[in-house]
């Protein structure tokens, strides 16, 4: 499905109307929608009882602490009644296309972040009311009518606040942050609730005595950089609601990657090469379709003990041929087979793309399951 897109040339000084839409437990909700027997039960999409990684967890599973990217063994231990459901990425893509059709009926300025979330600039709209709040409500209602799935929304005047707001009243909720409300909202916000501040950084901030936005506001930009490095300057801006990033409908990717967890450990070089062939073909197809190739190839290997090893090789020019991509992966495997003789997961990615920008994309591939 292709949509018309235009550049966002709106002056940065003009107040924008930004919506961040985030589907609620998207993969799991699709599976529960399509299988009534799964409704109201804790389910995990992807993985299996003993192998793999959880791709998504229903809200019933999240009550027990089950989260995406969690090893299946850990998820099963937290929730003994957890039901593992095989992933159906073609189906998820089809539903995502339905949702994006709704987005593009309101504005050309849509920046998808993944299959289940996107930013929309509705300062000027193709249809609907002038109010961003009313548009967000209408979009959520249309999504439900078309897909029978719920979405949460954040509405504000910049992307950072819209993203944070969309998490406030999940699931199936909405939060609006007006310009006059932003200073008090950010001052009261816990540091761990700032989008982009992870658990490790939040713990570090707590040790320094910074627990809320009000605490961070006490630091100058130089002091922020001294304590947190370059990202400190970003923290300085966001805690003051300074975010002039436009919604970018033509965002390019910094990297393209694919990985797969296997139902049985792999312990031979020939089998590893066979598996990387499949990953390379998926990545190369994506790069060819977008005519955007990269100069760095990275191999990811996860041992049965969950230790991750990554090895990269960079070239002066772009890796354009599939055979060259495969051969580079083979070389990285051969050079590291002694260090990682057995793997439970293999991943491959291409970075240093010709046209870089935005974030990396991880291709959605099915887990190998029994």
Q: Could you explain the architecture of this structure?
A:
Helices cover 37% and strands 20% of the residues. The protein is an alpha+beta fold. The chain folds into three domains: 14-177, Reverse transcriptase/Diguanylate cyclase domain (Alpha-Beta Plaits), CATH 3.30.70.270; 182-238, 5' to 3' exonuclease, C-terminal subdomain (DNA polymerase, domain 1, Orthogonal Bundle), CATH 1.10.150.20; 255-362, Dna Ligase, domain 1, CATH 3.30.1490.100. The strands form three sheets. A five-stranded mixed β-sheet has the order 5-6-1-7-8. The chain has a five-stranded mixed β-sheet with strand order 11-10-12-9-13, with helices on one face. α4 runs antiparallel to α5 (132-147) and α10 crosses α11 (231-238). The longest helix is centred in the last third of the chain and has 22 residues, at 269-290. Residues 18-198 form the UmuC domain. Keywords: Cytoplasm, DNA damage, DNA repair, DNA replication, DNA-binding, DNA-directed DNA polymerase, Magnesium, Metal-binding, Mutator protein, Nucleotidyltransferase, Transferase. It holds the Pfam family IMS.
